[in-house]
Amino acid sequence: MQNPSSEDFNVTHVTEFLIVGTEQGLKNFYVELSFFILVVYIMILIGNLIIFTLVMTNYKLRTPMYIFLGNLSFIDIVIATSVHPKFITMVLQNDFTITFSGCFIQMYVYLGVQTVEGFLLCVMAYDRYVAICNPLRYSSIISGRVCAVMVAVAWVSGLLMPCFSVIFASQLPFCNTGVKSWFCDYPAVVWLSCWDTTFLIDVALSIAVVVMYIPFMLIVWSYYRIVLAICKIATSEGRIKAFSTCSSHLTVVLAFYLAHSCVYISAKVLKNNSNMLILISIINSALVPVLNPLIYTFRNKEIKDALQKLCCHVKRQS
């Protein structure tokens, strides 16, 4: 059965979307969340900017592992910046509209950079696998050139993945402009179409699951080999030291995929529960980026040492 054309509906050209929909309860709910999101956004900027600055300015951190970490911090800044400032501005100005083009640009940036992060976490897992399972060959396997290529592939492939879904969604006829989300989330926007988009959303979510969880399976394989290698280390001190080199990354991976799993499940199960969808989306786009710098700062000796040196340098300058 074919979807009806846009001429079958009372459709005018959409120039903007209303982010909170038409329900006053949702607007009140957003106002209550705005202060929390502002605080979290500031924390994301400060934490990730510190790590990014340390990696860029401290020559001791110019190794593949920390270059990957610097990219991860930059990604978290972009993810948060793609949605948080616009939301905070809407609440402050009491204007919850976003232009048509702005909506789809926001959607693309958010989806693309989230995908890049999944690929980068996979690259970081491979880096830890080589460091623990082939320590003598690490420098030759993960050379500066290989590191640059892996980062470039993660960025290019991640930014290309959502292109088709976003472009196709932008061509849909829309009979409603009230997006029941706190930003232009893909399912929330596509549900506004005049067409029955159930199949389209199912396909998009299936692609997202495949794109996100193939890297996850590679990460699982890497850590399986890492655990086997660690178990062969003779001393308990050596095993603890080896595992500590990848514990921070493993914690970030678990937080990232747990949050995304909740988003994928909720997009299908909680379609009519706007408040729950919003809360789960905030966990994914706000809490995960703020956790990453905390995890790496408190669990990584090199980062803590570099941060201490930077603080001492700032004190001497002042």
Describe this structure in words.
With 318 residues, this protein is an all-alpha fold. It is built from eleven helices and two strands, in the order E-H-H-E-H-H-H-H-H-H-H-H-H. It has a two-stranded antiparallel sheet with strand order 1-2. It starts with 15 loop residues before the first strand and ends with a helix. 37% of the residues are buried.
Give the key terms.
single chain; 318 residues; 2 strands; globular
Structural class of the helix and strand makeup? mainly alpha
Radius of gyration: 22 Å
Number of strands: 2
Tell me the major beta sheet.
2 strands, antiparallel
Terminal-residue CA separation: 71 Å
Helix content range: over 70%
- Overall 3D geometry? globular
Order of helices and strands: EHHEHHHHHHHHH
Strand numbers in spatial order across the main sheet: 1-2
Q: Which whole number gives the mean pLDDT?
A: 82
Low-confidence stretches: 6-11
Number of helices: 11
Please report which band the strand proportion falls in: under 5%, 5-15%, 15-25%, 25-35%, 35-45% or over 45%. Answer: under 5%
